[in-house]
Automatic annotation (TrEMBL):
Family, per entry: Belongs to the peptidase S9A family.
Entry's Gene Ontology BP terms: proteolysis
Job description of the protein: Serine peptidase whose precise substrate specificity remains unclear. Does not cleave peptides after a arginine or lysine residue. Regulates trans-Golgi network morphology and sorting by regulating the membrane binding of the AP-1 complex. May play a role in the regulation of synaptic vesicle exocytosis.
Naturally occurring in which organism (per UniProt): Tachuris rubrigastra
Full protein name: Prolyl endopeptidase
Length: 720
């Protein structure tokens, strides 16, 4: 599926998992016959080189240069007194929190054991009932991945015999996870990206297939990659969370690596995408609000890329191709929501863009897939999911409402754009992924028949609207057990995010199903700043509008209590990453609404972080939070809601935070200082008051040595 587009639609917040650092791979041939097992869905540099300085988003003239793998440039850093002091403070704070965790964690061991066993039991049940997973088909060959191995089978083989093409363990990638697979057009080569949990950078392994598959090359620090032809691979490199260079490597008799494109503007992130008909490879340079795309003609991969439309502030666009026309998914024009437009390849500037289809107001475009005669839009409107099928032949649009329980889409890979069926999965926090197919020929939706886990059939989904401070209606999705009585006495777990135009994560997790089974109520608050109601919903909750998200969250929790969904003393609030801003802010302004707060890798020190331009994401993030260094009004506004800046002596809820030592996105120092300040404020309040029923909240920080800011593997997430 269109990974680059999905990230574009989800706010350009690139976070992927798993990386493995190796210096060299011996050429091997892991090929054997095995019986097929259940498979999982396919998701589909340490180099030194001399290049000249170029303006932002420049195409560099072709020039061969050597690319020596594994070479590192040493650097000497002068440490002044303030840096040494800061590092010492960080070490002392970390040591103190680790000691505190070692003292407290044994108390929770019996509960941890019970929960882990229950989650594993539910995982096994859901896996058993949903064992049939999608595969990637090229002609008569079918590729699929399972447990770190990539297999090849024949579509007409009913006996289940498969060839092993790749094994991560056998090749020294035992700690890595397969993130993306790309097969060359003639199926001679296969490119695979591998990541470990401790880093956000990946290795790209190129295999030459055939009777005895062999490793041809390993490229470190790769983000995205695509085959332009059967022996030409384009890829981007990642360093310090930034992707700004595009390379091309050839696998002909004379192997060469070329630097194709470089991006100088720190606000922009570069990735590459192959149009569904494989005619063009697109080089996409995106900030959070602006795009620029260059085209590589796959019939002439050595020619200079051509610019589609120069970057225009506030205009985002993505390119597909069909019958010598570019199909452009863009925010260009009014209203500033996504539209599908088209233009001739030869005259692609925005003055020539013609409207094909415009989304309705307050509709979120989740994903988009192009086929030879149709395209499919996956949409979200008022909490419900829809399929819009646009026929280029009949010039008609058909809208299909998907099951009411569904909250998340996952589009499967369709390598052949001429296919007559589109496959995708639907899920919710308490519904494991279920496979669906839309048939263009039959013009209908087909649901895969699976046996449901019993508790799922007893789970009720409710959608509510809370009226915020400015009268805006904010959607809430609620799940609870239909057998539960007296809901006002049941515990409630509220989820929030509200940033970057990204939807609140509502994918399936076994622990959510466990909570439903044990009588909990789950509520998901789709506050402004997120993307659930389109681009305007995000714009209305970022920069100088960030407080609207806080008002939305408060209104949601108050409505839930008013309607009899639990009460403050049984309510917990959960958030991760940037969701920590709104959760932490509510903890300061309205601590009486909740009893506990659970944060994962939270962003809680917005002001200090946005003042440090040496951090990898600060410049890029200014489009979301503002620039307090140059705008005093912005600095005061951030200070008014920043969780760390507004801690004061009062009765706080109990707080549990998970953080990661090597998190590149959320500096650990900010989390350590937040916890220390919060704990001190809670103790100060307790010491000053002798009110009956006074209590001191548990404020616990678990700093994980392994793991990173991104999602963890199944095993690691169970431990967490």
């Amino acid at each position: 599926s269109c990974t680059g587009l999905r990230n574009l639609l989800q706010g350009l917040n690139f976070s992927f998992k798993y990386y493995s650092s190796i210096n060299h791979l011996q050429t091997t041939c892991p090929c054997s016959k095995i019986k097929a097992k259940k498979c999982h869905i396919l998701n589909c540099s340490g180099c030194t080189c001399t290049r000249r300085t170029a303006p932002p988003g420049s195409i560099l003239p072709w020039k061969f240069f050597s690319c020596k793998e594994g070479t590192r440039i040493s650097s000497k850093r002068k440490q002044n007194t303030s840096v040494v002091t800061s590092e010492l403070l960080h070490k002392n704070l970390l040591k103190s929190e680790q000691e505190n965790w070692y003292d407290i964690s044994p108390i929770y061991k019996p509960m941890t054991k019970r929960i882990k066993e229950k989650i594993e039991e539910l995982h096994n049940k859901c896996t058993t009932f949903n064992s049939e997973s999608p595969r990637m088909r090229f002609g008569e060959n079918v590729y699929f991945e399972e447990n770190g191995c990539i297999f090849l089978s024949r579509a007409d083989d009913d006996e289940g015999n498969v060839d092993i093409l790749f094994s991560a363990d056998d090749l020294g990638f035992s700690d890595a996870f397969i993130q993306r697979i790309r097969i060359s057009p003639d199926q001679r080569y296969m490119a695979i990206s591998l990541k470990s949990e401790s880093s956000e950078e990946a290795n790209c392994v190129i295999m030459e297939l055939g009777h005895f598959p062999v490793v041809k090359k390993v490229i470190p620090s790769v983000f995205s990659f695509e085959w332009a032809t059967s022996d030409v691979l384009y890829y981007t490199t990642q360093k310090n969370l930034k992707c700004q260079n595009v390379f091309m490597i050839t696998f002909t008799n004379e192997k060469h690596t070329k630097l194709v494109y470089t991006e100088q503007d720190a606000r922009f992130f570069v990735d590459i995408y192959l149009t569904k008909d494989r005619r063009f490879l697109t080089i996409n340079s995106n900030s959070k609000t602006t795009s620029e795309v260059w085209l590589v003609d796959c019939r002439k991969p050595f020619e200079l890329p051509a610019l589609v439309q120069a970057r225009t502030k506030g205009v985002i666009y993505h390119i597909e191709h069909r019958n010598e026309e570019l199909y452009i998914l863009t925010t260009y024009g009014e209203p500033a929501e996504y539209k599908l437009m088209k233009a001739p390849v030869a005259s692609s500037s925005k003055e020539n863009w013609q409207l094909v289809y415009a989304l309705e107001k307050k509709t979120k475009l989740v994903d988009f897939e192009m086929f030879s005669d149709d395209c499919i839009m996956f949409l979200k409107n008022a909490g419900h999911l829809y399929l819009n099928v646009i026929s280029f032949i009949s010039q008609s649009v058909q809208s299909i409402k998907l099951p009411t329980w569904a909250c998340e889409f996952e589009l499967e890979s369709h390598p052949e754009h001429t296919t007559s069926t589109c496959y995708f999965q639907l899920s919710s926090p308490v519904h494991p992924p279920k496979r669906f197919a839309y048939s263009f020929k039959e013009n209908n939706l087909i649901e895969q028949a699976v046996q449901e886990v019993p508790i799922i059939t007893n789970c009720h989904t409710t959608r509510l609207l809370a009226k915020s401070k400015d009268e805006t209606l904010v959607p809430i999705t609620v799940f609870h057990n239909t057998n539960s009585k007296e809901l006002h006495r049941k515990p409630l777990l509220v989820h929030v995010y509200g940033a970057y135009g990204i939807d609140l994560n509502m994918s399936f997790k076994e622990e959510k199903l466990m909570l439903i089974e044990e009588g909990w109520i789950l509520a998901y608050c789709h506050v402004r700043g997120g993307g659930e109601l389109g681009l305007s919903w995000h714009k209305d909750g970022c920069q100088h509008n960030k407080l609207k998200g806080l008002h939305d969250l408060k209104a949601c929790i108050m409505l839930l209590h008013k309607l009899g969904f639990s009460q403050p003393k049984h309510t917990a609030l959960a958030a991760a990453s940037a969701g920590g801003v709104l959760a932490g802010a509510l903890c300061n302004t309205d601590p009486e609404l909740i009893r506990a707060m659970v944060l994962q890798a939270p962003f809680v020190d917005v002001l200090n972080t946005m003042m440090k331009t040496h951090l990898p994401l600060t410049i890029e993030e200014q489009e979301e939070w503002g620039n307090p260094l140059e705008d005093e009004k912005c600095m005061k506004y951030i200070k008014s809601y920043c969780p760390y800046q507004n801690i004061k002596p009062q009765r706080y809820p109990s707080v549990f935070i998970t953080a990661y030592e090597n998190d590149q996105r959320i500096p650990l120092t900010g989390v350590l200082q937040y916890v220390q300040k919060l704990r001190k404020a809670a103790l100060d309040h307790a010491s000053r008051t002798s009110k009956k029923g006074n209590w001191i909240p548990n404020i616990i920080l678990d700093v994980q040595a392994n793991g990173s800011h991104c999602d963890s593997s199944w095993e690691h997430s169970v431990s967490e």
